[in-house]
Amino acid sequence: MDRLHLMTVFVAVAEERSFAGAARRLSMSPPAVTRAVAALEERLGVRLLNRTTRHVRATEAGQRYLDDARGVIAAADEADEAVGGVNAEPRGHLAVTAPVLFGKLFVMPVIVDYLRRYPGMDVAALFLDRVVNLLEEGVDAGIRIGALPDSSMQAIGVGQVRRVVCAAPAYLARHGEPATPADLGRHLIVAAASVSPSLEWKFEHAGQGAAVRVKPRLVVTSNDGAIEAVRQGFGITRLMSYQVAPYLESGELTALLSDYEPPGMPINVVHREGRHSTAKLRTFLDLIIARLRAEKALQR
User: Which residue has better confidence, 287 or 50?
Assistant: First the structure.
């Protein structure tokens, strides 16, 4: 079998962590995928994948080979594009990650537009409220909110978000509005665990930081759940500004303690650094960066 084909199949299996998933991604039959990986392992004389009934994971040697294989495939793609010229249409597979609600609100519309523009592309969208390791999980680009650790990733700033304390007017009419963070102790609190895992809300005023430990009556594991609870008039919550922007604008929710908001957090589009930058990644980056920078909710 062609060596580049074998590499492509192996990369798909390692990234999907599934032979069946790789088969769907490559439009191949599962037996053909299994044969290709077996042929590659026989050719190299080393086991690349550990297989169980539930999981497929790259071995230590497989992980090293995976990194190199990605570079080889990217270089081949780059060579194909160079022959086709700068106007060659992107083709292939792209994996993108973002926080769940951010992905739903801002990234999915871009992905749909991208797929409509480029019929030769397919996209895997990983919307997760955790930091995804782009290299280890085979992801091409991601959206990160907050300070970035030093890494080999390229980062492009596209906006910022703030942590906003808010409640429905109906709740405030019954319970009053907190004047300072310390007043939160006498209010009903709704906490989104993915946003406030420590249940300690940090504030800043006149250059001085302060932390208030809250005791929630309701803890939910989704931001959507916290939004719905406070829209129903049950308590006060704290979420990212982009998550509640439509409800603040419509008047369904009211922002509280604005004078005590901590500094905003940056939003970055990140991707794997290197000399291999394919048309499929460049075109997606151009589109997502322009769209996010145009979102008013991300520029305040």
Answer: 287
